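Let us practice reading a record.
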Amino acid sequence: EQQYMINDVIRVGDIAGQVERITLRMTVLRDLEGRVHFIPHGQINTVTNMTHGWSRAVFEVGIAYKEEVDRVIDVLHDLGRDLRSDPQFGRLILEDLTMLGVDSFGDSAVTLKFFIKTRPLQQWTVKREMLRRIKNRFDELEIEIPFPHRTVYHRDIAASHALTDQRHDARWASGDAA
């Protein structure tokens, strides 16, 4: 039935990896960390094939609320065109970048979602390169990639010890200290 073949990247339950071998009784996967998984066919219910025919590099890019969304979308489209015309990466890409648009409003970011259709197994290579280019271009254009902020309160230890000493001295003077 050709749900998957040697070299496809699949997910079976919680296990994902590249198909190394298919026998009559089992499928052998190697995960990203190099671990080998032997999965008996009798235990396979659902298979997700991440590389059958073509793949997609899916992006969720957070930008600061102060940024002009349409400007950033134009920048991302330009980067997608540049990547597709690159001799090294262009051959890995099957279609122009598809912008889905504003996907969500988070605590500190507006999230833009888009994808690039790629040759099988190339979505990760394309994604890493596109993210590198996004970071560099955003830095160049001063487009802010926000991150959550935390306020940390630092207790003044010296003042705390002084207060404790004053309380102790007051109790000692009143005769309450034991």
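A brief commentary: The chain is about 30% helix and 30% strand.
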